[in-house]
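Structure in, sequence out. Go:
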């Protein structure tokens, strides 16, 4: 698949990840990574999610550090496609930054052992998040994993 073909597929209103991902391999990850840095945040966010389907946890981690909330949300959404250890590491970058939507996505993706830093953030959110949903998710996740 060429970069132009991939760009066209990602630009669709309803991106068909289940049709795109099987056509790509880990060797295509650099092309996907390049699109994750696209000036168009919607295209970049779709490329971030696609990278997660190809094992590109580094792409998802980089998006977690972005200042653009669209890219942070893409990173949080992509977490569920990554192995549990990578999820926790990236979730530490996302949880508790003040965006309830990102918090919800990242917290829902958590599995396995929580780091002390993530445990502390979840404790803080369980009692002080302005979002009822984030408070409840944080408390439930601490009970389930902590």
């Amino acid at each position: 698949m060429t970069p132009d073909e991939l760009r066209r597929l990602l630009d669709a209103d309803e991106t068909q990840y289940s049709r795109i991902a099987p056509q790509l391999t880990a060797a295509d990850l650099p092309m996907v990574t390049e699109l994750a840095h696209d000036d168009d945040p919607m295209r970049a966010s779709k490329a971030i999610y696609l990278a997660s389907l190809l094992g590109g946890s580094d792409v998802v981690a980089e998006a977690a550090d972005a200042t653009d909330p669209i890219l942070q949300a893409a990173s949080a959404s992509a977490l569920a496609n990554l192995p549990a250890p990578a999820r926790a590491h990236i979730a530490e970058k996302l949880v508790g930054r003040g965006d309830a939507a990102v918090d919800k996505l990242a917290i829902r993706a958590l599995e396995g052992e929580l780091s002390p830093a993530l445990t502390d953030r979840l404790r803080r959110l369980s009692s002080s998040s302005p979002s009822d949903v984030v408070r409840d998710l944080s408390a439930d996740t601490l009970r389930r994993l902590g």
